[in-house]
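User: Run a structure prediction on this.
Assistant: Running it now.
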Amino acid sequence: MQNRERTLLVFSYYFPPLGMGGVQRVSKFIKYLPQFGWHPAAVTVKPVSYYAVDPSLLREIHHCPVHRTGSLDPARITRLLSGNSVIPDTRTTPSAGFPALLKRVIDRASIPDTKTGWVPFAALKGCHLLKNRGFSAILTTSPPLSGHLPGLVLARMLHFPWVADFRDHWLTESLVGGKAGEVHRTARRQLARWIVESADAVIAVSDPIRSSLASLSRTGAARMITIPNGFDPDDFEGKTAAAHARFTITYCGTMSSLLDPEPFFRAFALALERRPDIRERISIRLVGRATDIDPGAVVRRWGADCCTELRGYVSHDEAVSEMISADLLLFMLPDTCSSGMATGKVYEYLASGRPILAFSGACEARRILAEHPGCSLVTSRQTEAAAGIIIQRFDEWAGGGNTAVPLVFPDLQRFDRREHTRMLSRVLEELLYPSL
């Protein structure tokens, strides 16, 4: 029975060639599943309304058949009507006028989220595939929370084992305020409960998120496990650090009102005030897309434009090269982030072996980073402490310290994407062969 071909149908709204961090988890599952006897196929949306594109991500999942469907989600319809296939790398979102009003209306009318319009297309395509291609099981992943609905419907209709993967807290996308926000939260809570109680197994990206999901279920947490985010050693294989003449501080990731570089630049300005001699010997590299803020304005406001480069969005491969070439990596999460938050960037930063300056509130990411021998942790209000860390790390570098020598994070292999895929394969095996 163990030698029987096992096939998995994966539903994921966010999928390559879409770039950014949200696609890494499902892509790495798909990459490594064949090593454990599983052959995946994916159902996703057509490549329209992408904020960032990274075609290189498709190379490592070339073995996976990808079935792309239409969708009625608002962003995709807007791009189709405008004739554009990719959302530009805009600095801001609409804040006034008809576009802003339309966005607010859409946000409030879309329950549980703005991607609900993909569900009927995904479910129809999935129904056809499950009936005609001999799949063994279903995997759905969120966000968006509505991305679990095809699994909820099809598992009940066609009696397939279903695993629901939560990459984030189930309330994370509920950003609508007022009475409408309460309606959203109530709807999302009920949907999350249905998912948890209906799925054959539930995977969460952190223990706090798993506990939150377990609290929704009246059947307990027996079918729930944690598979964290991680890093892929292949992404770092053969890469060497680029030589920089200046002490280089690098941030890789999205910038927004929640992931705000302002606290760092406030601390950097204080560091320059205390040590004006370092201004000409430091370089700051911001690598990633900005959404609802203008990072250039932040840089200018704190007088750092002379030494800061805004690189914008780059491919994942290039982002990894930026990480390993840094003398100090900058990490940012809000002080009020949810307890279960631990972005994939945490683990790639750890795998890079570089020192880290982390601005973060109490959360899973902070707990993990606290174990890193070269990580300094502050909150957004600890400006003086952060300035002191910048100066300290610069002095270590200027004094010929070992900043070029990768730091060794204890037990790093537990964050290996291959091991996480092995864990997923075991969950699937247990559902198919419960007596083994």
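The domain at 6-230+416-432 is CATH 3.40.50.2000 (Rossmann fold).
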